[in-house]
Write a structure and sequence with these properties.
about 350 residues, alpha+beta, Immunoglobulin-like, 2 domains, six-stranded mixed β-sheet, four-stranded mixed β-sheet, 3 helices, elongated, Cadherin_CS, Cadherin-like_dom, membrane, Protocadherin-15, calcium ion binding
């Protein structure tokens, strides 16, 4: 009787494998099925599949995909990211191992699956300027300032980043962060206080890989103190991802690099020499008067209390003096009684 020997390794069918999916492919999606055969019989011919890590290859995808051990079905295990892949390497490589069931000596083989990744619209626009707080190469909560004393009607506003690490005027720039980016358009999302949207115009200009916001004040108006524009950068796509930046209108003080928020009407009054401190002087005078009255009242109260205490003290002294019997009188009485007894 001839006994079968485990002398044949498993062999993949139709290898190598390659497929293409979008980076937004949901977790659990089936990609393809790998198959292998083993010419040995019985346990030696039973085969199982597995995925192993291979850090020696570019863009190893061992952690991102799963495989059914018996059927060889490959599925998405984790979220994919087109942007994290290097230029010219927009794919993952999965190393699949097939092993037979030999009880003593096991034989195996492996093959690689190349999974090409296409870009999906999973990132929105991002503002960019030096000094902004960044996370994953994007500005978080971007903020700009405008000097209200430098505003000219119908002229482009000049911006400074916040924090202002350069000290120079900068442009407001944004771009879509997808690998294949969409165009970006700017607009006024809202103002604070509200109702001032129509007093400003916003144009979008392409500058290299970025888009620039050109903002102008087109109507004369006395802006309220602490005025803010929320500027929206929106990508031109069905998803319409967008990002919002805050533009604060401030007065930049050149001395000591101090800056404070101020309304344009206050700035104009200071330039034309109008009196702007009357209410402040009145308030200071009122506070001084009240303080003086309080001091006088406290002083009078203390004097009154001291006077009452002194009067009580004097009265008690007089009463004590009138009730006390002189010592000489008591001594005289004893002497008289003793003299009478001798008689």
């Amino acid at each position: 009787m001839v006994m079968d020997k485990n002398d044949n390794p498993p062999i993949f069918s139709n290898a190598p494998y390659e497929t293409t999916i979008n980076e937004l492919t949901p977790v659990g999606t089936q990609l393809l099925t790998v198959t292998a055969v083993d010419k040995d019989s019985n346990l030696d011919g039973n085969i199982t599949y597995s995925i192993i890590r291979n850090l020696g290859i570019v863009n190893d995808g061992g952690d991102l995909f799963d495989i059914d051990t018996l059927q060889g079905i490959v599925t998405v295990r984790d979220n994919l990211d087109y942007e994290s892949l290097g230029d010219g390497h927009k794919y993952y490589v999965i190393r699949v191992v097939v092993m037979d069931g030999g009880p003593n000596t096991k034989r195996s083989a492996y093959t690689d699956i190349k999974v090409n990744i296409t870009d999906g619209n999973d990132n929105g626009p991002s503002y960019m300027y030096t000094g902004c707080l960044q996370h994953k190469m994007t500005c978080v909560s971007p903020k700009y300032t405008v000097d209200v004393t430098a505003i000219t009607l119908n002229q482009e506003l000049h911006f400074h980043g916040f924090p202002d690490v350069t000290g120079n005027a900068i442009r407001i720039l944004a771009k879509d962060m997808d690998g294949i980016p969409s165009d970006v358009v700017f607009s006024v999302a809202t103002t604070y206080p509200s109702g001032y949207d129509s007093f400003f115009s916003v144009e979008t200009k392409k500058v290299g890989n970025y888009f620039q916001a050109i903002v102008k004040q087109v109507k004369s108006v006395e802006l309220p103190r602490d005025f803010v524009i929320l500027l929206k950068a929106e990508e031109l796509s069905p998803e319409k991802w967008f990002a919002v930046a805050e533009i604060s209108f401030v007065k930049h003080m050149t001395d000591n690099n101090f800056q404070t928020t101020i309304s344009p009407q206050l700035s104009t009054a200071a330039q034309t020499g109008e009196k702007t401190t009357q209410s402040q002087t009145t308030d200071e005078f009122s506070e001084t008067t009240v303080a003086l009255i309080v001091v006088i009242a406290v002083t009078l109260t203390l004097v009154l209390c001291l006077s009452i205490a002194m009067a009580c003290f004097v009265s008690r002294r007089r009463q004590y003096s009138s009730d006390k019997v002189p010592l000489s009188s008591l001594n005289g009485a004893h002497e008289n009684r003793g003299y009478s007894a001798q008689l």
